[in-house]
Amino acid sequence: MSQSDEGSSETCGCKVGRVADRYGLADLDADLVRRWTDETDERYSTRDLAEHVNKRVLAAALDDAGLGYKDGEVENTYRLLTDDEVSSGTRVQTRKELERDAVPVEDVESDFVSHQTVYNHLTDCLEASLESPSDEERLERSRDKLGALRNRTAAVTEDTVEQLERSGVLEVGEFNVLVNVTITCEDCKTQYTIRDLLDQGGCDCQSTGE
Ligand SMILES: [Zn+2]
Ligand SMILES: [Zn+2]
User: Fold this and answer.
1) Rounded to an integer, what distance in angstroms lies between the CA atom of residue 191 and that of residue 131?
2) I need a surface site. Which of 62, 116, 128, 204 has the fewest CB within 10 A?
3) Share of the chain above pLDDT 70, in %
4) What is the pTM assigned to this prediction?
5) Which ligand is in closest contact with the Cα of 118?
């Protein structure tokens, strides 16, 4: 790799870094960090960011093939390539047209990144220049993680009860499994469901300073 052009001298080895290099997206890191740490409603989730990266990749590929494109065309082409709602016929047609225009569709598609890849790039590769994930992002990830755990607990419980019932060890009618995780603040003895505690950001008794 040459040590010439601006900015990208310390490219990380991850997919986002490689893709940014390949398509000459020199400002990509700054772009991602700015959108991710934005403290207004404009803030991008990692899902939004992955889509943003992929649209920039697509735009760069169209540029490389010497195709002019109008406002909204990249968006639309991206949608035709990736949206589940698009029929496979339409998708095949779109890919054919791109190929005819000398866009290496297959390569471009395999250069598309997932939200997890973007997240890893932001947190692992750019760690030094990035503040820790926003509180909201952390809460969101914790909600996801605990939600998945609750669902798994419910599924395993249901299975277990059904097995015992089938083998005649246990008798029960139609049943529902409800998994509740409760947190008790030992300072004030208030109980919360984990969901409520995450939503309100802490126990009431702690609300005056740290
Ligand atoms: Zn990276
Ligand atoms: Zn409390």
Assistant:
1) 32
2) 128
3) 90
4) 0.58
5) 1
Distance 150 CA to ligand 1 centre (A): 32
Work out the burial of residue 204: count CB atoms within 10 Å of its CB; fewer than 13 is exposed, 13-18 middle, 19 or more buried: exposed
Q: What is the pLDDT of residue 132?
A: 59
Burial category of 108 from C-beta neighbours within 10 Å (exposed 0-12, middle 13-18, buried 19 and up)? buried
Ligand 1: distance of its center to the CA of 60 in Å? 19
Residue found by looking up tokens 């986002």 in the block: 16
32 C-alpha vs ligand 1 centroid, how far in Å? 11
What's phi and psi for 22, nearest 5 deg? -60, -40
Residue 4 has pLDDT above 50, yes or no: no
Alpha carbon of 20 to those of 16, 53, 57, 59, 78: distances in Å? 6, 9, 8, 12, 18
Give the pLDDT score at 158: 96
Domain ranges of the chain: 8-129, 135-206
> DSSP labels for 46-58?
HHHHHHHHHHHHH
Q: Which two tokens stand for residue 122?
A: 């932001």
Ligand at shortest distance from the CA of 117: 1
Q: Among all ligands shown, which has an atom nearest to the Cα of 204?
A: 2
Give the tens place of pLDDT for each residue, 126-153.
874 445 567 777 888 888 889 999 999 9
Sign of CA dihedral 35, 41, 46, 48: negative
* Residue 7: per-residue pLDDT: 43
CA of 20, nearest ligand number: 1
